[in-house]
Amino acid transporter heavy chain SLC3A1 (Maylandia zebra), 689 residues
Amino acid sequence: MSYRNDSDSVELGECTRNPGYKDADGDGPAARDNISVSDSEEKRDSIGVKRLSDARDEYTQIKPYAGMPKEVLVLYSSKARYRVPREILFWLTVCCTLAMVAVTIAVIALSPKCLSWWQASPVYQIYPRSFKDSDGDGVGDLKGIREKLDHFEYLNIKSIWISPFYRSPMKDFGYDVEDFRDIDPLFGTMKDFEDLLAAMHSKGLKLIMDFIPNHTSDLHRWFNLSRTRDPHYEDYYVWTDCKPDGPKPNNWVSIFGNSSWTYDEVRGQCYLHQFLKEQPDLNFRNPDVIKEMIDIIHFWLEKGVDGFRMDAVKHMLEAPHMRDEPQVDPNKPPELVTTEWDLHSDYTTSQVGLHDILREFRAQMDIYSQEPGRYRFMVTESYDYEEVYKTMMYYGSRLEKEGDFPFNFYLLDLPHNTSGVWAKHLVHLWMGNMPKGKWPNWVVGNHDRTRISSSAGRLYVRAINMLLLTLPGTATTYYGEEIGMENINVTASQIQDPAGKYNTSASRDPQRSPLQWNADTNAGFNEKTNLTWLPLHPDYETVNVEDQMKDDGSVLAQYRFLNTLRQSELPLNRGWFCYVHADANVFSYIRELDGLKRAFLIVVNFGKESAVTDLSSVRELPDELKVLMSTTIANDGKVFPKSRIQTEVGEGLVIQYSTNTLFNPNHPEECYISEKACYLETIDILYKC
Ligand code: GLC
Ligand code: MG
């Protein structure tokens, strides 16, 4: 049978004979044939056609059954008792999904950025010649580093910068690169490198390589091709006309002393070297040179390295006009102008265009950073001394990225005047000049500088480590600082460093002695023979890793405690940093996070006398302060009234306290933060605020 309506018709075929038919009174199947057939026929007879609504009324009397024809099902499903709950469920699902999407977006939008690996851990610098010698030739090597990776697990350090291990004639101990794509046999093979990297990655450690863009070794293939005027390589270095015995092309001097020009007999011209004469400067005005360096960056990134420390970057470009640089003392006879301190290095450093090249390097690294969890880090080395603004430019601009940070060398100057005020001044040089939102960092030693324990004195070693690990930002630890190693004495006949051969007092050997692992022969640095490339420090029998691991009060144990505390406490790893006090002895600051009651007060005595510090005017501090950790272990747990906080010379205190009133809202001009985050105690999350 069929029912037709012009606008709204339904066709019902034979199959509408419905075994589940039920009349309105629910008489059941027994009556169905009679009623349905005769009724409907009757209506059809009288009207001729049936309206859809009538059909719906009729067919929705049918009890649903499996295999109902579509048309019946449609009629059924439009009944309010089915339609309304269905629509409610539908809209509920839509609303829940939208709410979940909105919550997800809100959580993502409100969450502060997680700290990246280079922010979360200190960077540990390995000078590979001196870390661990695995083959007994007296010089450390890559296999040696691999043997000692547990040291970093113990210290809770994740980022390792290794000074150069490229193939090199070692005139500047690896900073004179002969082949940027090869490993020097002294350190091992490419396989050793790959094994080391894999072992590091499997322990969650990151490897930062040294990258030396400014110069190559004079044995580099490019230099040979350049001095023989191969058309492609002719301009790879900075050449200019000069006579073998004539005057130098200008008054520019090398960092290691004397003219930075050397005559090359093969080419019959002078080449520029801002460091050793065996380290000719590359010509970064030649786009092919930039391309070569980018290819080398790609080479190592593809091998999986996690970042680069870019060496001596301010020297990469020189002024093409090559004019004499102005003398610091204009009256000094020109023949006595022999050191970098005699000249304003206006034409040999920080030239226009330098940052464009570095930003290009950065951009390449960003390409390799896209893989989740594989951020490639870049730090630049540039000593700009009082010209802080020059250093800050290596952070990049708001629109273009450059290094993640330039090394902050200002704390190297701490020993110059050990006092609380001086410490604050040096810290503030960075905090007060760093572009907003950038990440600070701190260095107190490296392979070029006297060890801080020798320049400041052993008395301050623990306090300096405390400063490094409680300031905001990334600390760099030069190998041995974690145990308080000191410089060695190197006699004239023992000098290895080329800088020391020019000028004994400039030798960098004293800070490069082998790491003191234990009290055995050669301090455990070389367990196979009796060779060490530089003498050991005689104190290795008492100052060494193994013994300090057994002693809770050791420099090592304190380093480890502070580093672990820093990584587990939000105020220390990403909170506000606020100056509280500085005087002739004490430097004191607060670390806190909005929304979190737990905060830290650091009090460090860098002076020459014991001190009693009165912080009673700091109303945000509770009246009684309990020492969580003192560099003098006997003072752990001591309670001081805030008006009388006692410290001995070289003592540092970490005080943990609880407060309802944070310091930063009342003293914004005393406080710094890289990226503000707040803490919601009730659900234990961080959010942007
Ligand atoms: C950097 C290195 C230093 C090296 C110089 C030349 O300053 O840290 O060790 O001698 O560059 O490459
Ligand atoms: Mg250069």
About this structure: DSSP finds 19 helices and 26 strands in the chain.
